[in-house]
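Annex B. Sample input.
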Amino acid sequence: MSSNQFTELVKQEKAKIKAVEEKIKNAKIELKKVKTEAKKKISVAKSEEKKKQKASKKIAKLQARKNRIEAKKKLQDTKKQLKQTKKQVKKEAKSKISDAKKVLKQVKKEAKS
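Annex B, continued. Sample output.
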């Protein structure tokens, strides 16, 4: 394996990691949007008449809670995926480095012969 191939492989793996990190970033942005939306729903519920206010507020809180839980779950899933991708990339890189070292060792051995 040439150093150019190895460098290209490293670039590809870094790109994969960056893509997953981008997903995490997007999930965080989505979580922030959901929280903002939930706060808006709660404030709208407060402005309604007293009787409707209690019911609307309860519904808004439940919906906001549900949305936050879903957004947190998405974020956790994305983080888990990033961890797995990083692990896999490290494992593949170590394997390829090991293979490259073996080839180099063999070439040196043949060169001495």
